[in-house]
Amino acid sequence: MHPELMILAWAGVLLMVHIFASIGRKTRQYGKEWNMGARDEALPPLDKVAARLDRAQANFLETLPLAIIALLGVVLAGRTSQLTALGGWIWLGARAVYLPLYWTGVPKVRTLVYLVSLAGLALVLWPLLLP
User: Fold this and answer.
1) Domain limits, the chain
2) Per-residue pLDDT at 96
3) Which CATH number fits domain 3-129: 3.30.2420.10, 1.20.1250.20, 1.20.120.550, 1.10.533.10?
4) Which stretch of DSSP H or E encloses residue 13?
5) How distant is the alpha carbon of residue 104 from its chain centre?
6) Which long-range contacts (CB under 8 A, 24 or more apart) does 42-50 make?
7) How far apart, in whole angstroms, are the C-alpha atoms of residue 105 and residue 47?
8) pTM score over 0.90
């Protein structure tokens, strides 16, 4: 199996971690009835940690489609290499580090880790952009 596909599988696991971390914190704040209900009612703002987890999940979901395009693209185009695999692992590793940094409210370093993740994706995308 191509490493790029393994990276996508682990990205799915990371997405589940994001979802469960976020919904777990929201449930702690709003209660189990809210979690199991239709969620139609107006609610007070999320506490700081729940809001951070929600934003971290949204941020991951912003870059995940790009990662899917890049990682699947190189596999389908037959343009995989050690560099595309390395770029994918850099992206995934940085995204895994990003979550606890955002969760705990670490500024600046979190942004640098985000930029590292984008650099990893650039390594994957590059072969698709070449003729």
Assistant:
1) 3-129
2) 98
3) 1.20.120.550
4) helix 3-30
5) 16
6) 48/105, 49/25, 49/103, 50/22, 50/25, 50/26
7) 13
8) yes
For residue 54, what are the CA distances in angstroms to 16, 19, 46, 59, 88? 13, 9, 9, 9, 24
Q: Give per-10-residue mean pLDDT for the chain (131 aa).
A: 97 98 94 86 91 97 97 97 98 98 96 98 96 81
- Rounded to an integer, what distance in angstroms lies between the CA atom of residue 72 and that of residue 122? 14
C-alpha closest to that of 67 among 113, 129, 120, 130: 120
* Kind and range of the H or E run holding 52: helix 48-76
So what's the pLDDT on residue 40? Answer: 83
Q: How many CB atoms lie within 10 A of CB 35?
A: 13
**CA 100 → CA 2, 56, 66, 77, distances in Å?**
28, 9, 22, 34
C-alpha to C-alpha distance for 21 and 26, rounded to whole angstroms? 9
